[in-house]
């Protein structure tokens, strides 16, 4: 496994209350050929000082990168550009509100890529995945067939069991894994989609255009709803940006998608499966499983409540 390099690229904006926990979780995952790249995106709090303290005590290389408050997409490109993409390896992309809770992530990633083919995978998402369709009337790209990791927020009913993997047209971060091969073949994220929303879609579709497949793998991580700035304090122009990006993607990928074999990506045909030698987490007795499902339903209700409040505020400001 040492022949594979791992770059952990974390986009950070004023997350002093959480960033130590985030980076410590990454350090626990790191092998002997791992590097951590915190992208400090216009941070004005103590995030950098906390990272400096971790750099002094960590035996894992931590290389700071600076961005000028450009938001997630441009920060990701900044990190990808400064981290080495030579040889064989993987970029693990994370936001500053994601705590990894599976410390065997590197061995599992290697097993997935070696089983399915290192040069066959475009995006390996750990949060959720979607298929897309073209809305001819409004000339937009629309999400369908959403499947979410067991460890996600409970926003959909279609749940990917722990330790299982499934194919989707688009892998949605964060976290997610993109190999050096995919970056060198496909390029970086399309910055016309900045600052965010639907920015995952373009890279995944470009992977499909180049013969690569995208997957979702259910790996253990924690990302509480209240941790995410976009979720608790959405950008005032978020809905306009989303609509703009959906229309942009429609125009950019229309000709490819018009001839795409959507039927082969039907959830009826794409069943979750397991990878040899990756152990499936066990959840003990049935009462624990029921408790977990109840917790997911609570998360789903909370997420829907956030959406209702957001749209009410949006309508008031019109």
Task: Please explain how this structure is put together.
This protein is of the alpha/beta class. It has one domain: Spore Coat Polysaccharide Biosynthesis Protein SpsA, Chain A. It is about 40% helix and about 20% strand. The protein has nine helices and 14 strands. The strands form three sheets. An eight-stranded mixed β-sheet has the order 3-2-1-4-12-6-13-10, sandwiched between helices. Helix 1 packs parallel to helix 2 and helix 6 runs parallel beside helix 8. About 5% of the residues have low confidence.
How much is the radius of gyration in Å? 19 Å
| The named CATH superfamily | Spore Coat Polysaccharide Biosynthesis Protein SpsA, Chain A
Low-pLDDT segments, ≥5 res:
284-291
CATH architecture: Alpha-Beta Complex
Helix percent band: 25-40%
Brief rundown of the structure:
The chain has helices at residues 19-29, 47-57, 71-82, 105-116, 180-186, 199-209, 229-232, 238-258, 286-316; strands spanning 5-12, 34-41, 65-67, 89-95, 99-100, 121-125, 128-135, 140-149, 159-160, 165-167, 170-172, 176-179, 213-217, 221-222. It is α/β, with parallel strands linked by helices and 318 residues long. The chain is globular.
